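PROTEIN DATA CARD
Card holder: Restriction endonuclease domain-containing protein
Chain length: 96
Origin: Rippkaea orientalis
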Amino acid sequence: MKDVTWQEFEQILQKLGEHRSAKIAYDHYTLKIMIPVPEHEILKQIIGDLIKALLEDLDVDVYPLGSATFKNPSMKQTIKPDSCFYLANEVEVREN
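Structure generated from the sequence above:
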């Protein structure tokens, strides 16, 4: 969807709620809504498990955060990764 304001985007997110299966991204007035297919979810799980195993083997502390939505209203953008992991600077990232 094009020409969606940041306020409209926030309203859509609020109406859909946090526990939705759709992935929603916003980039400079463009709203994208994606529904992951089973093959995508399987690969996401395999890749996430590989990352966790590698980090455990390397003895690296990790803070898995899942598919959190990161918003930047000043840049008019969001990202919602399938999975994300904090390896360093977790406190700084969480506070911003």
